[in-house]
Design brief:
Blueprint lengths: L8 H7 L16 H7 L3 H11 L4 H4 L6 E5 L12 H19 L3 E5 L5 H10 L6 E4 L6 H12 L4 E3 H20 L8 E5 L3 H12 L4 E6 L2 E2 L9 H9 L9 H5 L4 E4 L7 H5 L6 E4 L9 H5 L4 E4 L14 H10 L7 H13 L19 H13 L1
Helix pairs in contact: 5-14, 6-7, 8-9, 8-15, 9-10, 14-16, 15-16
Length: about 375
């Protein structure tokens, strides 16, 4: 278990004074000549050239490789709907991660509306200012509709990281966890506790890679076509999962399960975990408080992962999204596809190599091999 000095509130607030981002120059402006090149009159020649040949904007502005981090502030971390202004420190943090882990410039955009069409229209009007969109902290079920509409409206890579970044890293961890327990991934019975954006995206990913027995639970129990209170994405997932037509709560769903993935605040019942299959897998990903104490889970399960950095096997989206966007932009891709996401998961999982163990199923976010490996895998699929 990693140990570090406790973080104080004073440290946190001091680190955020003035925000976490700045703009840097790529060329000097130290005299009149350099000023005339970077700005007027020199810049007018570049603008005129772009007017005559719009493709030049891709090579002569920063927009083509600039990621817009977009949120409406409706599902921010564990804080919920706190609004756009309060969400801005989180979006600045996301932009900082793009720079640190992928070398990509990024700009946070927080939009003061809950109307999906208004958000789409805003991004369409701004589309010449960036080259990709990372949607962030947008509440379900609106996030599903918003992502679909933004993808259709913009001719550039778009991804809702809360959905797909999570699903990619979970798949990577499961690929290796299944090897540790000596089971085939597609034969696992996987229970997903939480039917928000992350839970439903994980379910989609499991279906795509051929897992035959997936159960998803919301606050009312297992998603099933027997329920008459489901609509939209939940109803779609219900029709594609739960082949044994299980009804009931998490304890019932866990009976004989090989793996459970927590992406909600609902605690894992200890007795339910004990009813899982031999050599079970427990991913308790709620942050900052996992669905079960990892130390307790380790007494029951063979492989345990959390979303925290102070326990082994941290499931962290930063393993995925920087490389996914970098690879898509390097390939000049117009879409981020499911095969790209699966390739990214395999690239992450493969880095563990011969060091694979119950306490090491996923590389560290600070493993400098991760982003290049993910970017290369995505770029290969895009071409």
């Amino acid at each position: 278990m990693q140990q570090f000095q406790p973080i104080t509130d004073d440290e946190i607030f001091e680190a955020h004074i003035g925000g976490k981002l700045s703009v840097e120059l790529t060329a000097p402006i130290s005299d009149k000549r350099e000023l005339s090149i970077a700005y007027t009159p020199g810049v007018a020649k570049v603008s005129d050239a772009i007017h005559k040949n719009p493709e030049m904007a891709k090579s002569h502005t920063w927009a083509n490789r600039l990621v817009a981090v977009v949120s409406d502030g409706t599902a921010v971390l564990g804080l919920g709907d706190i609004g756009p202004a309060a969400s801005l420190p989180v979006m600045e943090g996301k932009s900082a991660l793009f720079k640190r882990f992928a070398g990509l410039n990024s700009i946070p955009l927080v939009i003061d509306t809950h109307d999906v069409d208004e958000i789409v229209a805003t991004l369409v009007r701004l589309k010449h200012s960036f080259g990709a969109v990372n949607l962030e902290d947008i509440a379900a079920p609106r996030c599903f509709e918003l992502e679909e509409k933004v993808i259709e409206a913009l001719d550039m890579p778009v991804m809702h990281d809360d959905q797909h970044g999570t699903a990619v890293v979970v798949l990577a961890a499961l690929l290796n966890a299944s090897k540790v327990v000596g089971k085939e991934l597609e034969n696992l019975k996987i229970v997903i506790s939480g039917a928000g954006s992350a839970g439903l995206a994980i379910a989609d990913m499991m279906i795509h890679v051929g897992v035959k027995n997936v159960l998803v639970l919301d606050s009312k129990g297992v998603l099933s076509t027997n329920r008459n209170d489901l609509a939209g994405k939940k109803l779609t997932i219900a029709s594609q999962t739960n082949p044994e037509k299980v009804d009931g709560d998490l304890s019932k769903a866990l009976l004989g399960a090989d793996a459970v993935i927590g992406v909600s605040t609902s605690a894992f019942p200890i007795e339910g975990l004990k009813q899982m299959a031999t050599d079970s897998i427990v991913f308790a990903l709620s942050n900052p408080n996992p669905e079960i104490d990892p130390a307790v889970a380790r007494e029951i399960a063979k492989v345990v992962a959390t979303g925290r950095s102070d326990y082994p096997n941290q499931i962290n989206n930063v393993l995925a999204f920087p490389g996914i966007f970098l690879g898509a932009l390097d390939a000049k891709a117009r879409r981020i596809t499911t095969p790209m996401k699966v390739a990214a998961a395999h690239a992450i999982a493969d880095l563990v190599g011969n060091d694979l163990s119950a306490d090491y199923i996923i590389p560290s976010p600070f493993d400098e091999r991760v982003t290049p490996a993910v970017a290369n895998a995505v770029e290969r699929l895009a071409k």
